[in-house]
Amino acid sequence: MMAMGRRHPFEVRRKCAGHRVPRSAARAGPCGVTALALVLACLLSAGRAGAQAARQDFYITNGTVNAQVLAGNSLYIGGSFTNVGPVIGCGVPLDPATGSPVPGFPQVNGHVNAVLADGSGGWFVGGAFSQVGGASRANLAHVRSDLSVDDWNPGANDQVLALAIEGGTVYAGGAFTSVGGNDRSRLVAIDAATGGVLGWNPGANDLVRALAASGNTVYAGGRFSIIGEAPRNYVAALDARTGLALPWNPGASLEVYALAARSGLVYAGGQFTMIGGQSRNRIAAVDSATGVPAMWNPNANGQVSAIAFGATSVYVGGSFTTIGSTSRLRVAEISTATGAATAWDPSANGSVSALAVSGATVYVGGDFLSIGGQLRSRLAAIDVGTALATAWNPVAYATVQAIAVSGGVVYAGGTFGGVGGQVRNNLAALDLITGAPTSWNPNVNGAVLALALNGNTLYAGGSFTQVGGIARNGLAALDLPSGTPLAWNAATDGQVTAITVDNGVVYVG
Asked: Which pTM value belongs to this model?
């Protein structure tokens, strides 16, 4: 058998065992796990005419799979990954001590964009999904503290991007135009107990991305220019009783992605460079009565996507690299008094999309792979005092977009399909019967881009320099039963992206 190098997985693997995987199916799957899951489904569907359903018991990886070969009852996979774990869906409650998924949680079969603590140990969940725990739920659901799925079922006809709660009312914003069979253009109020859609109906002419509720006022941010029957650019205050826009009208120059209200101020984050007629780069504090920006001016040089309150500070996350003149990579703590970045500096190497503060811990989610001085895959707990990552290390397989803490449990949502699992660096073997990884573990220190099998020898090519702690530059021959490198050592001075074996000769490119 041979590997074809770094082509798109479905350019070389769309046919197998007499079945053809539709291109649409190859590209569209829940939680970003389609590639490996559908390949495995195809490989295992021989003899079942037309079978294309992905096996949910097959483990997935937290990174790219570039090559694969079959040998006996094992599928050998190579790529750029560090963990192999079970499919868990895109929303999961995590143990605050171990970081492991809490047993018995209901799987979400699509993306989770927003999570909201219900005040009783459970969570309201919004996103782009159709099922939670096997129950039909269109983009909105309530998971109780005992992890059962509530009958609460408003049903939105398009994705939900933001959630807020005030009293007994849940507010949801997004891309939908109908909820519970009622016309609701991108903004809706729902009874927190029954799931019934309330009469409140502001209507927005474009996406609502952020919400904050305070007393009789609901603050909304997004991409709209009309909301509550009035022109409002990207941010607005709405009467919680009538749904009409209040006179408060700071007007932002570009989209608003995050909102939070406290102590007479509304904190806004996004892409804007002007708000309330004043220069404010991507983050501002606006007087909740007058709509006039406060003097507070952190001046972020990139998008602000998340805001969370500390005791005397505001934590912010996004894609920025400076706050004022201070270097802060994508996450920062800002003094509410001065608007300057504090000494707290975890430095994430990728964007931050979600923040939640609980006691002495700031939970951070996004697209990073290191933060707080440690390797952390898209999800981390940062100490509020030291800014160092704690031992908590769930390892999310793709972007984390939402975090909420309820009853001491951390609920994370996003586009990931797996969390945790077993450590396997860039090369692994999956048992075809159980779907789980075998004990075979060569431990490659760089990407594997090509595989070829010849008898009991597995040839691997890529951009690595070591296999199992033994020097091998870009090319290695492994003993298939043990996974240890053989003495054969044809070192290269660059990466190998294609391998085939023919008549005793190994051809590489």
From this structure: 0.88
